[in-house]
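Budget justification aside, the reviewers requested a transparent look at the raw inputs and outputs of the sequence design task funded under Objective 1. We therefore reproduce one unedited record. The lines immediately below are the structure tokens for a 138-residue chain.
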């Protein structure tokens, strides 16, 4: 997993709940932020995707927790392509604390026109930036 994209996440005090761990909704924000970093690392800044007339929408996500992340924990989100179809793609996310996964996520995105006119096929510039299919989990 050494060559898998990893996106650092600074855990902010405001993201931690009364149980002392990151409140569950923040993981979706971490995944969204990691998505933009993943695409940029693949050569496609999100602003370029939008300028080309495309955007993506989350249509399904699942998250499994094995442990909590607390304030001041140093974490990063690993991101990898699971599958790219005609109009959608699936990414795996792993929230890593000290190199071990404490949260796994899998999200399906659909490509849409940035002008709101509907679903589109995955454009070449996006397909290239996604890289090879390499699930982080089974």
């Amino acid at each position: 997993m050494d060559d898998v994209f990893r996106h650092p996440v600074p855990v902010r005090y405001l993201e931690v709940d009364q149980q002392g761990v990151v409140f569950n909704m923040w993981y979706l924000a971490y995944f969204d932020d990691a998505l933009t970093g993943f695409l940029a690392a693949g050569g496609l800044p999100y602003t370029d995707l939008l300028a080309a007339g495309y955007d993506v929408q989350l249509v399904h996500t699942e998250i499994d927790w094995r442990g909590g992340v607390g304030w001041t924990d140093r974490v990063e989100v690993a991101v990898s392509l699971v599958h790219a179809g005609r109009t959608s793609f699936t990414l795996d996310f792993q929230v890593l604390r000290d190199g071990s996964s404490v949260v796994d996520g899998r999200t399906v995105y659909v490509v849409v026109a940035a002008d709101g006119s509907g679903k589109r096929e995955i454009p070449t510039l996006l397909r290239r930036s996604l890289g090879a299919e390499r699930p982080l989990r089974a």
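Strands lie at 5-10, 54-65, 74-84, 88-97, 100-113. The chain has a mean pLDDT of 96. Computational costs for records of this kind are itemized in the attached budget.
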